[in-house]
Amino acid sequence: MKHGHKTWQQYVFNVGLLAGFMTRQYAITEDSSYFPHLIH
Q: Which burial class, exposed, middle or buried, applies to 33 when counting CB atoms under 10 A from its CB (0-12, 13-18, 19+)?
């Protein structure tokens, strides 16, 4: 992300990643084993 040169594929990937991350926050109790290192 340092290059400041985004393709639509990176945009779609980032949006998908964000949506997946927000969805996972509702399942924090189930994913607590791997979730903490996602925040850092």
A: exposed
